[in-house]
Amino acid sequence: MAEFESNGQGMADLESNEQETMEDEGPDAEWDVDDSFYPFSITAKIPKGYTEPPRARLEDVVRNYVLHFLPAKSLYRFRTVSKGWNEWISYPFFAHRQTTYFKDISGLFCQVPGLNPSFISFNQDAYGMPDPSLMFLPEPVNIRSSCNGLLCCQSVGDNVYYICNPVTEEWKVLPKPNLYHGTEAAIVLVFEPQALNFKESYELVCAVTFPDHPVIYFEIYSSRSSSWRLCDTICCELDSLDLHNGGYYMKGVVYWQSSSGGILAFDLKNEQYGLLPLPLSVGQYGSLTVMHGELCYIMPRRQDDGCSIYIHGNMDMSLKSVINLTCDDVGSIFGVCRALPSINDDILILANGRKVIAYHVREHKVELIFTSAGDACTRYLPYVNSLVSVRHPLVGKRA
Q1: 350 - beta bridge partners?
Q2: Band of pLDDT at residue 382, cut at 50, 70 and 90
Q3: Are 291 and 232 in contact (CB under 8 A)?
């Protein structure tokens, strides 16, 4: 570069020679250039017939790469942006895509015995539904299980199950099972949306016990066949007979806690069961959940000056950590303190009497989420604000 700057005549001669060469060969001629001869870089030649592609509009980028990561309530608001957005968000493929990508816990379905369900939103602006009391269903129900946007309910005083999406108000009544489940059956809804499976499929797994039969039967409903079937596997472990009616699903396995202090695990693929230990002195107020990709058991214990949270993990459910919360953190304790399934690896949820609080582990911060005006709820189910469709026969939808 210094050579060309010191010799202005040399640069002029070079430019003159290049201009003569281009005039001789014509504007359409192809000619080679020695890139190393130039004091600057020539990146590439522009091919004949090249036209610059149109730049993507911000609206198209948001529509194609952002919208499916948003919760259902926000998407319903965005349908008013334009006619094109309304058509795109209403498209069944988009609903499937949003169901696959959006899996954040949006809030808790809860219910006081004898009353209609209600919904505790973790963000009122982003998460919600038109009728959290589920009055769009044909009869009063009790909430039983939830998974990735689907909710399982059972009719009051009967053996009828409903699968619904409270956001879209689509629902399906299931055929009656072969066995009598009762109102406190240990059932778990299993739904894992997958990108390449456009027909949403789910299963309802029930561990059925009878007073005069010291065994556990496993009956499974499959949306693929729209029918129930009784598994050949029968659990004869006496310590597992008294199961809590709530269960937990993780990575192909359903888990139930038993009153005897153990965990009954049922592998859906192989339809085999196993037993996992629980720590001594566990009560009925603990909760199975997943933290950092592994199954954990959270057990709160009330103390005089607050509450201690014991977190157990690994296959032997050994003690991993203890979190001590004082009354300054959780406030006055009314009744019992129960653990609920955690939102994510950093947030633990506790039902403290009529209060629901969230404890942020990294920030050591306690947040009050909800305070009940009446009796404390007896059942809380984590829920994902999803557009998942219930697209099967015998489907209803509110007009």
Answers
A1: 339, 357
A2: very high
A3: no
Interatomic CA distance for residues 373 and 376, integer angstroms: 9
Domain presence at residue 143: yes
In the three-class reduction of DSSP (H, G, I as helix; E, B as strand; rest coil), residue 247 is classed as strand
| Average of per-residue pLDDT values in the chain | 80
Dihedrals phi, psi of 247, to nearest 5 degrees = -140, 180
| β-bridge pairing 294-303 and 287-291 | antiparallel
The reply to whether 35 falls in a domain is: no
Whether the per-residue pLDDT at 46 is higher than 50: the answer is: yes
pLDDT at 8: 46
CATH number at residue 330: 2.120.10.80
pLDDT at 231: 95
Structure tokens at 210: 């009878």
Partners of 83 in beta bridges: none
Nearest to 297 by CA among 275, 321, 273: 321
Residue type, 32: D
Neighbours of 126 (CB within 10 A): 17
Residue 357 CB neighbour total at 10 angstroms: 21
Q: Helical H runs in the chain?
A: 2-6, 8-25, 58-65, 72-78, 83-90, 92-101, 327-330
Residues with Cβ within 8 Å of residue 277, at least 6 apart in sequence: 261, 262, 263, 316, 317
Alpha-carbon distance of 313 to 291, in angstroms, equals 9
79 Cβ contact list (under 8 Å, min separation 6)? 85, 86, 89, 90
CA 31 – CA 51 distance, rounded (Å): 21
Bridge partners, 338 (sequence order): 351
Rounded Cα distance between 322 and 325, Å, is 10
Instruction: Give the up-direction half-sphere exposure of residue 395: CA atoms within 13 A in the CB hemisphere.
Output: 13
In which domain, by residue range, is 134 found? Answer: 96-397
pLDDT in tens, 167-180: 999 999 999 999 98
Residue 335: pLDDT over 80: no
| pLDDT (tens digit per residue) in 276-331 | 888 766 667 888 888 888 889 998 887 777 788 899 988 888 888 898 887 766 65
Per-residue model confidence as pLDDT tens digits over 178-199: 998 887 789 999 999 887 777 7
Domain count, the chain: 1
Instruction: Evaluate whether residue 164 is within a structural domain.
Output: yes
Please indicate, yes or no, if residue 140 is contained in any of the structural domains: yes
Strand partners, 265: 255, 274
